[in-house]
Amino acid sequence: MKALQYRAVGQEPEVVELETPEPGPGQVRLKVTAAGACHSDSFVMSLPEEAAAGYHLPLTLGHEGAGIVDKLGDGVIGVSVGEAVAVYGPWGCGYCYNCAQGKENYCENAAALGIQPPGLGAPGAMAEYLIVDNARHLVPLGDLDPVQNVALTDAGLTPYHAIKYAIDRLAPGSTAVVIGAGGLGHVAIQILRAITSARVIALDVSEQKLELAREVGAHHVFASDATAADNVRSVAPHGVDAVFDFVVIQPTIDLGQAILGSEGRQLLVGVGAGSAKVGVVSGNPYESSIMAPYWGSRSELFEVLELARNGSVTVETEVFSLDDAPEAYRRLHDGTLRGRAVVVP
Questions:
Q1: How confident is the model at residue 329 (pLDDT cuts 50, 70, 90)?
Q2: In which order are the strands placed within the sheet that holds 14-17?
Q3: How many helices, marked H, and strands, marked E, lie in the chain?
């Protein structure tokens, strides 16, 4: 089968030929119908050799996946050959307290057991076939188009999970800010409009992405530059109730803190890093909080797909063949994708 692999540190991913995998006991093989390209992949491919070793190169990329159940390993129940499914990516042990709640993104044992998500350690979905370790990691797609909706397994699930953390602050009259209106941000805007009453402000350095933010429902859009804080304060003079940062670099962390209001939530969703002031004497608003959520729960993926099914959320996609997948990552790296890149084997 063909697969897109990251094979050597510092090199671009390449399309290779591999043996078609066979499912072992309890496993499911999918014939892949769509796979999404994500900034998390670019993050992995930017790591130095010592850090990249934990991802077991060569690595077949793709942690956003959808497919048709093609073959079942011994003992598999709950899915049938021919069924259209999406893959829940943050795999866990299935037995700890968090996993028992469907929060495998916060599995207590995954690291110790060497369990890694597809495309982020385990072989991923940018291939003609994918082995899924357990049927519980498959969510029915039904009549949803896999190409248009595969990105919801991360680009929808991750912002949805973050927004639910702040849902108590997003009552009528509230204001939410989305920093970064790209692959995850433009979905976050739609989710905010669908499940909250908040006024939504989008910030980005790209006019193209700000235009996308307008199209998907942002009430206000501003350039993410030195004027951004003043522009946001002109709309929300007492500060905003939630900031969803899909970039997470020092300037966006500082911007989030500058616009946050009392009891506000600052959610660091992107894969960048920086430092933030905390504490009563830090100058931050009283009872404001900062947190870094990760991916989402299995039950939340069901909910996100329902939002797609009822037309509340759509993903702006650019489609690439598997042979052209390296170009998708070049475009992702250069920031020239308008929404999300989807690879179709």
A1: very high
A2: 14-17, 2-6, 59-60
A3: 12, 16
